[in-house]
From TrEMBL:
<protein>
    <submittedName>
        <fullName>Haloacid dehalogenase-like hydrolase-domain-containing protein</fullName>
    </submittedName>
</protein>
<dbReference type="GO" id="GO:0016787">
    <property type="term" value="F:hydrolase activity"/>
</dbReference>
<dbReference type="Pfam" id="PF00702">
    <property type="entry name" value="Hydrolase"/>
</dbReference>
<keyword id="KW-0378">Hydrolase</keyword>
<dbReference type="InterPro" id="IPR036412">
    <property type="entry name" value="HAD-like_sf"/>
</dbReference>
<dbReference type="InterPro" id="IPR051540">
    <property type="entry name" value="S-2-haloacid_dehalogenase"/>
</dbReference>
<dbReference type="InterPro" id="IPR023214">
    <property type="entry name" value="HAD_sf"/>
</dbReference>
Length: 281
């Protein structure tokens, strides 16, 4: 499915979405939503299709991104879960809270403890031998610090930019403008030109992400080239919270420098290209 890969050896810096790309966001959220399901009748659709709970939760969280952009992500998660529980209780005619305050607060700490994908840390170690590595995440400072020290331990990051520091959430263009300013100041990497048709401009920045709506679409609009780590999101059954691939592709909103199912596969291609280049030198 992926086009012929460009020359990744000409880039110097990779920026990453974290949750959904490096950390298994959907698995973590689904586990933290489980207490809600225990109070619902067996006939509730969330039992037959747990992804429905995930998708509705994500919609509420994204609504909060847009309406309360300065709300830190831990509070965003807690409030989205509270709203979901209230909504489901009202629809089901259930009186009383469906989840405890402990459950609500727990989900707010999730980004610091949710598991990394099994390929993530090894791939980051290999990519770190070739590039500067930067996180651009919608999470808050405390949770990303715990994730870097915990599930992502062993990987090196040269910079971490969060929604809490920026004051808005992706897909806001301000988050990518913050990224451009940061990598220029810290690494001397110039921001991409929206009308630059060259692939892999030397010294450039490449954004690596799973979410189409939060990352690939706004990055593409700003001229930032992307690699899509699909993780099954290239098929309708695997869309999850990342966006409708076929719809966005048909609208011309997503353009990739490469498509890989896992970060490990991307690292394999990078290693292959650098290996061939080094043999010729």
């Amino acid at each position: 499915m992926a086009p012929t890969n460009p020359d990744y050896t000409t880039y110097t810096t990779l920026s990453f979405d974290c949750y959904g790309t490096l950390i298994d966001w959907e698995r973590g959220i689904t586990a933290d939503l489980a207490p809600l399901l225990t109070h619902l009748p067996p006939t509730h659709p969330f039992h037959a299709t747990p992804k429905l709970a995930l998708l509705r939760f994500n919609a509420l969280s994204e609504h909060l991104w847009a309406t309360q952009p300065k709300l830190a992500y831990d509070a965003n998660l807690t409030e989205a879960f509270r709203l979901l529980a209230q909504e489901v209780a009202q629809e089901s005619g259930i009186k009383g809270p469906l989840v405890s305050e402990e459950d609500l607060q727990k989900i707010g700490t999730g980004p610091g403890r949710w598991p990394a994908f099994t390929d993530t840390v090894d791939a980051l170690k290999r990519l770190g031998n070739r590039y500067k590595l930067v996180i651009l995440s919608n999470v808050n400072e405390a949770n990303i610090a715990r994730a870097v020290a915990g599930p992502l331990a062993g990987a090196r990051f040269d910079a971490v930019y969060t929604a809490e520091a920026i004051g808005s959430y992706k897909p806001a263009k301000a988050n990518f403008e913050y990224l451009f300013a940061g990598v220029k100041k810290e690494f001397g990497v110039e921001r991409p030109a929206a009308d630059d048709g060259e692939k892999g401009t030397k010294g450039g920045l490449l954004h690596v992400a799973r979410s189409l709506t939060a990352d690939v679409v706004p990055a593409t609009e700003l001229g930032l080239k992307t690699v899509w780590i699909a993780r099954g999101g290239d098929t309708p059954e695997g869309y999850g919270t990342g966006g409708d691939y076929l719809k966005l592709k048909g609208e011309g909103k997503v353009v990739f420098e490469g498509v890989f199912q896992t970060l490990g596969e991307f690292a394999d291609e990078v290693d292959r290209q650098f290996g061939e280049k080094e043999q010729k030198e």
